[in-house]
Amino acid sequence: MALLQIAEPGMSAAPHQHxxxxxxxxxxxxxxxxxVRSALAVVLNDENGRSLLPSVVRYRADGVDVGCxxxxxxxxxxxxxxxxxxxxxxxxxxxxxxxxxxxYHFVDEPGMVQISTVAGVxxxxxxxxxxxxxxxxxxxxxxGGELVGAVITVPAYFDDAQRQATKDAARLAGINVLRLLxxxxxxxxxxxxxxxxxxVFAVFDLGGGTFDISILKLSRGxxxxxxxxxxxxxxxxxxxxxxxxxxxxxxxLSGLNHKDVRLLQSHxxxxxxxxxxxxxxxxxxxxxxxxxxxxxxNTEVFASITKSLVSKTLAPTRKALRDAGLTVxxxxxxxxxxxxxxxxxxxxxxxxxxxxxxxxxxxxDKVVALGAAIQANVLAGNRSEDDWLLLDVIPLSLGLETMGxxxxxxxxxxxxxxxxxxxxxxxxxxxxxxxxxxxxxxxRELVSDCRSLAKFELRGIPPMVAGAxxxxxxFQVDADGLLSVMAREQSTGVESSVTVKPSYGLSDEQxxxxxxxxxxxAKDDMLARALQEARVEGGRLIEAVEAAxxxxxxxxxxxxxxxxxxxxxxxxxAIKGDDHRLVTQALEALNHATESFAARRMDASVNKALTGQxxxxxxx
Amino acid sequence: xxxxxxxxxxxxxxxxxxxxxxxGRLDQAxxxxxxxxxxxxxxxxxxxxxxxxMQWATHANEAYQTLKKPLSRARYLLHLHGVDxxxxxxxxxxAEFLMAQMEWREAIMEAKEAQDISDMEQxxxxxxxxxxxxxxxxxxxxxEKADYQxxxxxxxxxxxxxxxxxxxxxxxxxxEA
Lengths: 620, 177
Fold this sequence. Notes:
The structure holds two protein chains of two kinds. By secondary structure, chain A is α+β, with helices and mostly antiparallel strands.
């Protein structure tokens, strides 16, 4: 029960117990896991002391390799070795620009593309879950216990489908998602808390496959995102690809097999990295045909072949500033995030645009994971001394299809979340009894130019003349940036609601099936885990309710106290047993019994805060 | 609903209901409320707390956004005074205003055709400063003269100007793309 933290911000429900929580940066190229240990955010290494886990998954007939082992198989087994899977999250086959050049056997499924491997057809969600599982195991081993939950970072410019896919992947990996956190915001937390900064900052985040720009206002413990923009299909990979194309052109190569493609791709990446420190990079390779490639790439040529990519980062940057209603001069600092910002051409372009040296004092590969860990620590209920607040936004407008394939925007981009907006629509034909609701995301006017998130139907509208029915459609975006939509006919109360999942997300049932398929003793494991989780949750609730009762007994109504006490006893009993469903039932019963008490406490605390404020004014 | 959502937005933030608000105080009150009710404070708790917190935080965001922007603040204030701004139904505008609108549109078209970003940016800035002047006038009508019908007419005009602003911004985006 939350409300005790309102009254006593310094106290957690169980002061002696540190809850294990981590931040996970699920990156296009590399992934990391970090945690807060003795008040310090640290990245957790694997047994070989490596912090970065390459986001590469190789499927074998009898198993899965993730990370370094999989990287080595890239050239030898390209079809079954998936790199940069993040680019496929929440995407259909037509969305993937260079699918034809990739070595995978894509399966065009409605919703999300799938990849056929030697171990069967895999969705990007399942592939990402493999990466997350390795990170979870690393964390649990290193911290010596089960995780309460994790903050998973996503590009700020990820749309609903991509966010939902990420959350599904975490669930599939057995991770309780405390929050989906935008990568630039996570970086700002790590940076801002470290430097005690105040003022307007831009976070320029160029990763392996995604680009984000966020404009934030930092002031006394509040991180307020003013605007965000980006490109969820632009990153270091594209710079590699330009070099790769240049190699083909210079060496006069074509019709390469997949192994040679992978070989040259890794040479392209290596050359890019060399150019970070040097003026020239030598590219020498022997292809499987015996042909040799021997080229030298210098910084000048690299700059000219990637010029358009660099300007693709600046256009969103301009838009973000305009959306924030700010000019370049008002930006106090530019924080660089993501491995790709190491490229001198990026450093230079950003420096020139903002007319100031970008800030590079935090490791661009780690800062997102560290910020996520700091936030995870707070969300898990391990209170730190100082408290801060993150106010984030949705990156893209949400709307509905109206007549003629046009989009009616309901929630505007850069709205602070959580946000809800309702809009009324009406029927256009006499006697119309059903209405189809098509939810889309994007800035364009035509439905066909936006991303389709979900379609559902509101049926049972009483027959009326055209324009007489009043259908109220409510959009609610939660703190993870995930949308749910509800439609209701006002005069009769006919309702239909949907958490936006059907097009791109997985149903709970599908997740359960996947979980079962992935465990050998699936059922026993799951039951044991469910019981364990329910017990922990139950214990926590009892502690919280008891603490709340102690503090705010005066807010109880007659008879409420006895009822709550009885339900606490019942929950204690259920926890002693071994049926997780009974625990959950007792837990819900207690939750229900305290519902109005909880609401009264929240009202009281908000009122108290405002009264305090009025007193301050009087004193001034 | 259990919460006291019956308070108007000004009361929620402890402000007097007027067009001129102390933005610093509004920001501070908003942040104080969010610090208490934001879902991040409830992430480790049960679904019920999470739901209550989301409702409250959503409500606080809605109230803050309404009061922060001058046009929506004026509209809300008029609504509290029982005046409907009739932005959808009442499209009658003084001829002078309509002429000015036509001129604006022509200027936007010209800048669009010439693909002139700096011209378009100038239009953007000029419109902003004109709107700021109108906001001053809105303050006089609402807070000093209590001329709600006059204010209502000005809200309708500003709505037009806001649409112009959106057009300019979209055009700028297209040019930069």
